[in-house]
Amino acid sequence: MTAGGLAEITLFLVLSVLLAWPFGLWIARVAEGGPTPLDPLLRPIERGIYRLSGIDPSAGMGWQAYTLSLLALNVLHFLLLYLMLRLQYYLPLNPDHLAGMSPRLAFNTAMSFVTNTNWQAYSGETTLSPGSQMWGLTSHMFVSAATGIAAALAFIRALRQNAVAELGNFWADLTRITLYVLLPVAVVGGLLLVALGVPQTLATHADATTLEGAHQTISLGPVAFMEVIKELGTNGGGYFNANSAHPFENPSALTSLIETFLIIFIPFALTFTFGRMVGAPRQGYALLAVSLVFIVASLAAVLSAEAHGNPLLTALGVDPHLGDMEGKEVRFGITLSSLFAVITTATSCGAVNAMLDSFMPLSGMVPMFLIQLGEIVPGGVGSGLYGLLVFALLAVFVAGLMVGRTPEYLGKKIQAREVKLAMLAVLILPLSILGGAALSAVLPQALAALGNAGPHGLSELLYAYTSATGNNGSAFAGLSADTPWFDTTIGIAMLLGRYAFLVPVMAIAGSLAAKVKLPPSAGTFPTDGPLFVGLLVGVIIILGGLQFMPALSLGPLAEHFVMLAGKTF
Fold first, then answer.
1. Which of 29-33, 228-232, 466-470, 565-569 has the weakest average pLDDT?
2. How many helices, marked H, and strands, marked E, lie in the chain?
3. Cβ neighbours for 336, distance < 8 A, ≥ 6 positions apart
């Protein structure tokens, strides 16, 4: 942990915020249907989509219609992806004639990509054809990301509207987000990654001769375009099994920084979108400040633990000044590996450029805890913002209890219905994470899939259900996830984490949209200053995190103290 590394991280965060600001305003303009410089190129395509689909983009939807449209689209996409994975052998762009996936693995994978989780219980380069990777997985990365952003925009409109129950048109939001937000950045980012060494080809492999004269087959494919939407949409599913640690997905320290920026770009930008659309930019700054508090604190914890190295290895004569380099790529080192781990788990991106299983116990706990908070600091594209707004509603409710006033947020009264729905959404996370891990911890077939015993084995198990429910998709590794038990239960956890959370959130949006917007008064609790930022941070930690502390104490915390005692399992 050098001064240069700290300066690099500081510069990265500053530039990310500065560049996210104009892009957030761009998203707001797109959401409101305003003119853009891309209109001459994209407006005819947009109108053509509406005409072919029979969509009236001006027709508003209530929360039920908006939510049902969102769910119907994703059910259809789940079925299409499931069939594609099962029938891969018979489909085009499968020159190696790879067999289709088993029913349970196809279910797990289809659910993974439809829920924006991108959990991978398979090895991409040996299991899937270029066609499945490109038309199946990559296309779903666009749709799942656009779905999350659309839901966030609907929630923002609910806070902005004055007794108008409509939240916009889902199909118009989905179309405009894909065309004007995701696609342009993906094209530019994809070309940039190609220029920096990431392959983009329909060739499945290259034949090479090693220095020893042996023959080697190197997997290739349309990697660059998949890589950019994998990061931009906070998806995380890699073309290769090693994900962003693979040199074809992430060749250098420069590409690692670019990919890390792509991950955080839209979640940061949406806070500025929020401020612009509700007509109060400081409200967006407050949400951004909450995210930065957690990111900076997490980076400090991870860097500190990794920089000090492993005392067990130090006792064997390994130089502690090198830090904990186990499981990390030399081209990234501790700084970029730690930055990547924190950013991917503060969002809902499951990409990895280092082995989380090899992190120190405390620094491995931080990514897990960030997901357990609800993936809201700043969270995934769209899903992080509406999740953070749910906690903001709970924070003003707590503040109202303290001062004896009816809580309000942006002029909307927060009453029993909204609080009950918010708690229903929030309680989905511990139910799925702790419930799934508890069941697995007592079943022999689940325990047999663990690669480690003791506290670390519990951490692997807990992280799997944390990642699935949080729609993150990263893994501690060491867990053989492609088993009937894990394929099924982790698939269900991903479903609950995405849609059992989303439906109550949309119901809250519908309730708020129908309410009269009240002007600020002397008794209104300000939600755009440091006091509210501190309150919201506290509510997130208490409601989102402390319920997991007993499990974390038995896993990474116990492992840390065992390590300090000089013992291993």
1. 565-569
2. 24, 4
3. 253, 256, 257, 260, 353
pLDDT tens, position by position, 360-404? 999 999 999 999 998 899 999 999 999 999 999 999 999 888 877
Virtual CA dihedral for 51, 57, 62, 65, nearest 10 degrees? 20
Residue 387, classed as helix, strand or coil, is helix
Q: Read off φ and ψ for residue 110, nearest 5 degrees.
A: -65, -45
CB 474 within 8 A of CB 236: yes
Q: Tell me the one-letter amino acid at 566.
A: G
Q: Which residues of 429-463 are buried (b: 16+ CB within 10 A; e: fewer)?
A: bbebbbebbeebbeeeebeebbebebbbbbbbbbb
Is residue 341 within 8 Å of residue 354, measured between CB atoms? yes
- CA separation for the pair 377, 411 (Å, rounded): 24
Q: Whose CA is closest to 377, among 351, 405, 345?
A: 345
Residues with Cβ within 8 Å of residue 482, at least 6 apart in sequence: 105, 121, 122
Measured CA to CA in angstroms, residue 532 lies from 249, 286, 392, 412 at distances of: 40, 8, 9, 16
DSSP 3-state helix, strand, coil percentages of the chain (rounded to 5)? 65, 5, 30
Crossing angle between the packed helical segments 3-31 and 333-346, to the nearest 10 degrees: 30
CA distances from 338 to 309, 324, 345, 354, 445 (A): 13, 11, 11, 8, 33
Residue for token digits 């690099």? Answer: 8
* C-alpha span between 132 and 95 (Å, rounded): 12
Query: How far is the C-alpha of 19 from the C-alpha of 237, rounded, in Å?
Result: 25
Cis status of the peptide bond prior to 526, with omega within 30 of 0: no
- Which candidate, 538, 369, 292, places its Cα nearest to that of 356? 369
Higher pLDDT, 522 or 408: 408
Copy the structure tokens of residue 206: 């290259």
The answer for 163, left when phi > 0, alpha when psi is -120 to 50, beta otherwise, is left
Can you read off the two tokens belonging to residue 335?
A: 């700084």
Residue pointed to by tokens 């969102």: 70
Global confidence as pTM: 0.95
pLDDT of 55 strictly over 90: yes
Cα end-to-end distance, the chain, whole Å:
28
Beta bridge partners of 409: 412
Can you tell me whether residue 99 is helix, strand or coil? coil
Rounded Cα–Cα distance for residues 446 and 441 (Å): 7
Task: State the DSSP string of 443-484.
Answer: -HHHHTTBS--HHHHHHHHHHHHHHHHTT-----S-B---SH
Q: Among 196, 333, 306, which residue's Cα sits nearest to residue 251?
A: 196
Tokens of 218: 């190197």
Residue with structure tokens 């994470």?
433
Q: Do 178 and 146 touch, CB atoms closer than 8 A?
A: yes
